[in-house]
Amino acid sequence: MQETIAWAAGYNVFALPLAAGVLAPIGILLSLAVGAVLMSASTVTVAINAQLFRRAELVL
Known about the structure:
mainly alpha, 72% helix
């Protein structure tokens, strides 16, 4: 679970400012298509991580 939170936090720290247009003053804009691909990649990463957790043997 901590790994999933780390991936999500890292993604959000990087991608949300780009989506908000932080780099627009210097001419870098995030197109809608790139934003859609990045959101899809985030979803796929979380889904793969969840599948890895299902296959891992947990020691309690």
